Amino acid sequence: MLFFSFLKFWDVSDFRVVFQFISLFLNNFTFFVDIDLLLQKFQCSRVHLDLSRVESLLLGLGNPQNQLPIIHVAGTNGKGSVCAYLSSILRKAGYSTGRYTSPHLVNWVERISVNDQPIFPNELYKILQKVENAIAPNQDLPTQFEVITIAAWLYFVYRQVDIAVFEVGLGGRLDATNVCPPPLVSVITSISREHCQILGNTLAEIAAEKAGIIKKGRPVVMGVLPLNAQQVIRSQASKLKSPLIITKSSRQLKPGWAKYKCSSGKYIKYPLPLSGQFQLTNSAVAIAAIEVLQKQGWNIPESAIINGIAQTQWLGRIQWTTWKRQKLLIDGAHNPGSAKALRDYIDSLSATYVVWIIGMLSNKDHFNIFRELLRTQDRLYLVPIPEHNSANPRELAQLATTICPGLESCYPHTDLPSVLDIAFNPSNKDGLVILCGSLYLVGYFLSLQSS
């Protein structure tokens, strides 16, 4: 299972690459287990945002974060795909590009990549050991996210990348990635309600946390935001004298093609491989950030933008795939904003009804996610998410039938593989099968699919 799940992140179009990969994988197999065991030491049940632990460890490791030019990307939704667009464009422009994103779907190595190729497990394990050895006996233990973030800084310096794209994990102001020096450009993709118990109960409060990545005098690119969130970003950018670039969505020319209006007034037409109307905004945000770099002297031709976006891949986000040769759609849809985006995409397909396979973490906004997704005549199967703090499927079923009493059926189940087979039985033949609710559930599905 590990072999195939890791193989999907590599370019295996050449058989020589496949054989080389098999050899390397066999030599590295035990490191997958070792990485999990090492990082388990830093697992904690609650989120404690604080930069002091990260700053102290980085100081002892030579402050690698100060040795790299970076693009810093925050936002409720869209930040992962924006990072994917950016790294692909920069690679096409000839720059060695690091990318750090979270969470991973199957393996920890997915989080850290150079030129869109994930770090090898033996390399990650050695770097994690280095981080662990730098922790003083009397020092507070860092979190898993803090440890893997520090590992990313170290790896990118070791690989001597030209530039790195860093995705914020949670919020921005106190996120472990926010120990970086002033970035080339800060990016805030979108803002909606999520992690309210940590970031705040209003969009303005959440926006204030994300605005924490804006640095004095450094440009900031802002996606399409609600007005009250936008005002917070404008205010912080003005306070810090940071040039603010307000992005408008690209226009769809036809399915799979878009047009972006540059700051010069010129238009760029480009293929858009990722599904969903929101990718018109995400791709526009990425291009706006690239325009900032161009003005700073980075050599990024229009052809790199077009070809980079065309070859962007981002697994688990409105992704068509198969289960036993039958077509289904998978997506994280782990908050109301992303659930609405998924529902908008589904409605554009004119499906008769949807066969939902949903699992969610216990701390998510179940009510509003269901409210965005479910419609009369839909069929719903609830499943747990293995090895995570999963919501109870029976409790989710009760909530779903309360929110959408017109559901054709609603059943809690104990495991995903059996539900997948049920979802594709002949009685559901006219429905569109969709698996969503958590990126961890999507990752579990991908591991099952690979095996």
UniProtKB/TrEMBL annotation:
Molecular-function annotations in GO: ATP binding; dihydrofolate synthase activity; metal ion binding; tetrahydrofolylpolyglutamate synthase activity
Location of the Mur ligase central domain: 73-289
Signal peptide bounds: none
Reaction catalyzed: (6S)-5,6,7,8-tetrahydrofolyl-(gamma-L-Glu)(n) + L-glutamate + ATP = (6S)-5,6,7,8-tetrahydrofolyl-(gamma-L-Glu)(n+1) + ADP + phosphate + H(+)
Cofactor(s) in the UniProt record: Mg(2+)
InterPro entries: Folylpolyglutamate_synth, Folylpolyglutamate_synth_CS, Mur-like_cat_sf, Mur_ligase_C, Mur_ligase_C_dom_sf, Mur_ligase_cen
Keyword Ion transport: no
SUPFAM superfamilies hit by this protein: MurD-like peptide ligases, catalytic domain, MurD-like peptide ligases, peptide-binding domain
Keyword presence, Cell membrane: no
Domain Mur ligase C-terminal intervals: 316-438
Any single Gene Ontology cellular-component annotation: cytoplasm
Entry keywords, A to Z: ATP-binding, Ligase, Magnesium, Metal-binding, Nucleotide-binding
EC number: 6.3.2.17
Enzyme class: ligase
Family: Belongs to the folylpolyglutamate synthase family.
Name of the protein this chain belongs to: tetrahydrofolate synthase
Source organism (scientific name): Richelia intracellularis HH01
